[in-house]
């Protein structure tokens, strides 16, 4: 997903119907909650909010199970 920009993802989300958007939120909510509630969500010395955001995103991506569909893979399949 490194080459996918936020703008591209937002465009893909805009193409989803309401039910699909709800499913997307259901998928993302536990991941976001886990990241926010973890102690790792706190910025380290010298780290700004964006650095923290990207670090947490990388950690979530690293935890993705290979056998599960990723958000990018799911969105690309929906476009077909």
What does it look like?
By secondary structure, the protein is mainly alpha-helical. The protein has 4 helices and no strands. The radius of gyration is 14 Å and the shape is globular. The protein starts with 5 loop residues before the first helix and ends with a helix. The mean pLDDT is 76.
Biggest sheet character: none
Tell me the overall shape.
Answer: globular
SSE string, helix = H, strand = E?
A: HHHH
Number of strands: 0
- What integer value in Å does the Rg equal? 14 Å
Number of helices: 4
Helix content: 55-70%
User: What percent strand?
Assistant: under 5%
Unreliable runs: none
The helix/strand class is: mainly alpha
Distance between the termini: 18 Å
Let me know the average pLDDT. 76
Outline the fold blueprint.
Layout: H1 6-15, H2 18-37, H3 49-63, H4 71-79
What characteristics describe this protein?
80 residues, mainly alpha
Short description:
With 80 residues, the chain is mostly helical. The protein is built from four helices and no strands. The longest helix is centred in the middle third of the chain and has 20 residues.
């Amino acid at each position: 997903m490194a080459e996918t920009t936020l703008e591209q993802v937002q465009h893909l989300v805009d193409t989803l119907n309401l039910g699909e958007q709800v499913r997307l939120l259901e998928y993302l909510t536990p991941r976001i909650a886990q990241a926010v509630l973890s102690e790792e969500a706190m910025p380290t010395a010298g780290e700004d909010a964006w650095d923290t955001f990207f670090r947490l995103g990388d950690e979530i991506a690293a935890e993705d199970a290979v056998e599960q569909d990723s958000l990018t893979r799911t969105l690309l399949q929906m476009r077909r």
